[in-house]
Design goal:
It comes from Haloferax profundi. The chain is α+β, with helices and mostly antiparallel strands. The protein has two domains: 307 residues, BirA Bifunctional Protein, domain 2 (2-Layer Sandwich), CATH 3.30.930.10; 87 residues, Anticodon-binding domain (Rossmann fold, 3-Layer(aba) Sandwich), CATH 3.40.50.800. The protein is 28% helix and 28% strand. It is built from eleven helices and 21 strands. Strands 3, 7, 8, 9, 10, 11, 12, 13 and 16 form a nine-stranded mixed sheet that branches. Strand 11 and strand 12 form a beta hairpin. Helix 2 packs antiparallel against helix 5 and helix 2 packs across helix 7. The longest helix has 22 residues. The radius of gyration is 24 Å and the shape is elongated. The protein starts with 19 loop residues before the first helix and ends with a helix. The protein binds zinc ion (ZN). Zinc ion binds next to loops.
Length: 418
Amino acid sequence: MRRSEVTLFTSRESEGWENDTVQLAVRAGLVRQFGSGLFGFTPSGQRVRRNVVRTIEAEMDAIGGQAVSLPSLQHKAIWKQSGRWGNFEDEMFTFENRDGQAMCLAPSHEEGIVHLVDGFVRSYEDVPRLFYQVARKHRDDHPRNGLLRTKEFTMKDAYSLHATEESLDEWYARVRDAYCRIFDTLGIDFVVVDAENSVMGGSASEEFVAPVETGSSELVFCETDRCRVGVTDESDDTSLAAGDTCPVCGGTLTAGEGIEIGHVFKLGTRYSDPAGLTVDTADGSTRPVQMGSYGIGVDRLVHTLIEQHADGDGCQWPVTATGTVAPYALAIVPLDYDGEIAQAADRLHDACGREETLLFDDPDQTIGERFAESDLLGIPWKAVLGNNFRETGDVELETRDGDTQFVELEQIADVVSR
Ligand SMILES: [Zn+2]
């Protein structure tokens, strides 16, 4: 993409936010607020969010998930049947349509998935199945901490269906492992916390919580790499405290704050029972379908990545073995976009993929402004075409951390490829 042809929304004026991460997201031009608890994503922000979603979808597909799309706008009937109408912690948006029928904006989709499969899942041979979607959810929550608690947000939600509890246990573990791989791939530091089921119901659940400086819950966690032991102030388990020895690895537990980025539930028959969703078994009997429910907060992941990795110059997006979610993989920064330098910059733009690179061709920007904007966006590589290129023909390739190497123009695409 050419800097002269994209709208970046970067801003010097972003004061007044209670939260440093939201302030940076606004300053980097990733989001704009649309009133309390509502955010829109700009082209740069949407590029990051799209890359996060692709990472999640790849893992869900890899474990056998099938993508679906359920309506956000729903009639009362299925919520009345499950017993959650008017009983969703007062967070459900409800209203009447023009015909006086009660409707809602779905805060979750357990009822929806039961309705989707009703009549098509009938035999033990029709399960196990895992369905997922990436969709907007609506909850009339008290807005807090910018992107962490909003009235409309994007979630990847998934639901599994089973004939037996053993099958539910097996798939619960499978999705749990996939979640660990997703967060590792994105470069998010996280722990796993035993959690209450509250509004979802069911027999067991665990939260994935990212340790951060400013989060939405109190967290006591083990700092040992990949140990992942933690408890929050909402956990049933209150036996662990800061300074205690970690029960798993023997390390020391620390106190901090956390952001809930994912949640997995064994729902059992909480939703299949009231809907009469059953399967016939091999011995001729009938039993209610066992269900699991699995969620990842997509917007929260963007917030968490900024929170865990940003520095004084702006966003930083981790570069892991499988790539990065940065809005652009490479910034091409010519000293002046003119003459042979401009030709070389164009060549590099083509070689590295126009869609994934940002070419600073805008004549109104100084070199300093180009560097600052690239760092604010968190672009992991800058290819600088200046005096060194004129003299030697090598491009100065700089990481977001400031490490520099000199690389032949033809080799740049290999070095920075995701
Ligand atoms: Zn530990």
